[in-house]
Amino acid sequence: MSSHSESIIREPLITGQAISYSQITEDVCAPVERMPSKAWWIGFSIAVAGLLLWIIAVSYTFWNGIGAWGLNKTVGWAWDITNFVWWVGIGHAGTLISAILLLFRQNWRNSINRSAEAMTIFAVICAASFIVAHMGRPWVAYWPLPLPNQFGSLWVNFNSPLVWDVFAISTYFSVSLVFWYTGLLPDIATIRDRAQGLRKRIYSILSFGWNGSVKTWQRFETVSLILAGVSTPLVLSVHTIVSFDFATSVIPGWHTTIFPPYFVAGAIFSGFAMVLTLLLIARKVLGFENYITMAHIESMNKIIILTGSIVGVAYGTEFFIAWYSGVEYEQYAFINRATGPYWWAYWSMITCNVISPQLFWFKKIRTSVTATWILSIFVNIGMWFERFVIIVTSLHRDYLPSSWAMFYPTWVDVSIFIGSLGLFFTLFLLFLRVLPAIAMAEVKLLLKGSSEQSKRKLIEHGHAALPEGYDGSIEVANAKN
Amino acid sequence: MSKVKYILGHFDDPDVMMSGIDQLQKSNISIEDVFTPFPIHGIENKLGVKRSRLPIAAFCFGITGTITAFVMIYYMLVVDWPMNIGGKPAFAFPDFIPVMFELTVLFAAYGMVFTFFYANHLFPGRAPRVMDLRATNDRFVIAIDASLNDINSVDAVLKEAGAIEIKHNERKYISYDEE
Q1: How many Cα atoms within 13 Å fall on the side-chain side of residue B90?
Q2: Parallel, antiparallel, or unpaired: how do β-strands B140-145 and B165-169 relate?
Q3: Closest CB to B179 among A158, A197, A211
């Protein structure tokens, strides 16, 4: 309940002194209600330039076929699937924040879930674009669906993980979208009730007639909880099934049972890095420092240490199992990863994913905005290399040395990848313009219990005292802002 | 008869509003509804709002998804066109599980959300049944039907309970068409 006061030792989730409910509304609605800033226009222009590059490169691919890419007979999957897995993985953090952290009652999720879920949706759109593009013939992209057809009604093969993946990704996208939009309704209603004229009409349509009555809120909370409950196994299943695309094959380096948990941990790892990359800038530019506080950044960094370490252990386990299996093809695949022609990709991955996140053990580093942002970029790069290493180095030296090959990307490969970043940032920047980037209703819920001012009031009124010599939460939080 | 249709008690604090509800109920004043910017936990019990049955709906939709997926795959792979893949059985149940799971989640999520939209009459373009614009911002608004209660005593109880503003509305909902 709102009157419940949290322990003063916990870091406050809303900093600042004179925050009221209407102040939260003002602060969160401001970026949507004012004209876009210069920074937004600069970012948006760069993103749209990337989007145009994406359109050109994808059109070129569709016109000429996937021969436009650097693929060859030995390396049949390369940047396409690398980018697909990278983007899907990034999406996972949004669902983790919105669903799993809700089930675990981690209140710090309340101010970051909205933008993280938006990130999920846009990342899955980018991922899906690679799936369609790598088919080469997008006009038959409906073939993986179990539709009656003229091939004697030959159905899709439900024994294949690629078919499972079609169901997993499309379910994931659909459920994330409905979860995100349902959560947006009360906040769209807030904007609606502040707007005038055409804006009022548009937001009125988008708000579905939300009114905030008792029964609406009661059902809304039930819906949120159950959506979180079904999204939690869903998000774990999605990357598990993505890993099945590899793990159920017989390619050395791919057919390992460790893949599902290893992929899921990697997905959360990369997703949190992308959340930090985006939000550290957004909180500064949009002035959300009181809501996305150092405590939030630190919590996310702790998840990065955890998942980064799981990924590190997984890399080690793969090597151990390759040796322990006694299968020389498997052993060669791993020796080749670390010392073969793609050694630089492997060691970039190790440096970015295993070594650099360990710096977050130092409180100075994980509470520094600059250091966190730089390390989040490292993780993004490292996780891209992880997928590249798994896919390309496992394929490029197969069973016959005469067919060994290297993969060299063409300008089309590079442009589609850079272009997909443009697509992602275009969508994200538009989102920041038209929808509230922080879940206002959920943040207001925390104001009376978990904010800095409520904790100060507790101390002032003598309901709680800081232990002598305690230099934690409140003072530290202040000094940092 | 007075033209006042609804009395709205504005509170700026959820806890004060909750005790306000107690005081109104003690004075035998019936509460039409309460509009708040965020969910207030425990308010359903006070107002005697029944538990939501949406979890039951979600379960039913989920199980429908499971059965749909199983029947579909069984028909396609076992009945209509069984394939001989290395002599293995066509009815390979473990391989059915991932798609059965995904459709369970899909049906449960969409079924439940659309039931919620249907039950609360939420759809794009619906005219919002809002009594006060600030209820989506920073006010916790108790709405009382003026025809069922005595206006003066309601005002007195609301003031006593700490309402910071009391409004007498001559129409039930705000018009979103007037500019």
Answers
A1: 13
A2: unpaired
A3: A197
Q: At A457, which amino acid appears? A: K
User: Taking chain A, what is the end-to-end CA distance rounded to the nearest angstrom?
Assistant: 28
Give the tens place of pLDDT for each residue, A29-41: 988 888 888 889 9
Asked if B122 and A197 come within 8 Å (Cβ–Cβ), the reply is no
- CA–CA dist B177, B179 (Å, integer): 6
- The letter for the amino acid at A84 is F
A319-362 pLDDT, tens digit per residue, is 999 999 999 899 999 999 999 999 999 999 999 999 999 999 99
**Structural domain boundaries in chain B:** 6-51+129-169, 54-119
Residue B154 has pLDDT above 60, yes or no: yes
Which residue, among A361, A322, A359, has the nearest Cα to A338 in the 3D structure?
Answer: A322
Q: If residue A251 lies in a helix (H) or strand (E), which one and from where to where?
A: none
Of the candidates A159, A161, A169, the one whose C-alpha atom is nearest the C-alpha of residue A132 is A169
CATH of B6-51+129-169, one of 1.10.287, 1.10.3470, 1.10.10, 3.30.70: 3.30.70
pLDDT tens digits along A56-76: 999 999 999 999 999 999 999
Band (B67; pLDDT cuts 50, 70, 90): very high
Q: Determine which of A160, A221, A223 to mutate to test the interface with B (most B C-beta atoms within 10 Å).
A: A223
Look up the ipTM and state it.
0.93
Q: In chain A, where are the structural domains located?
A: 21-450
Write down the mean pLDDT value for chain B.
89
pLDDT reading at A3 higher than 60: no
The encoded tokens of residue A85 equal 């897995």
Strand, coil or helix: what is B142? strand
Please give the average per-residue pLDDT across A396-419, as a whole number.
Answer: 93
Which of B61, B99, B175 has the most A C-beta neighbours within 10 Å, making it the best mutation to test the interface with A?
B99
pLDDT digits (tens, 9 = 90+) for B68-127: 999 999 999 999 989 888 898 999 999 999 999 999 999 999 999 999 999 999 999 888
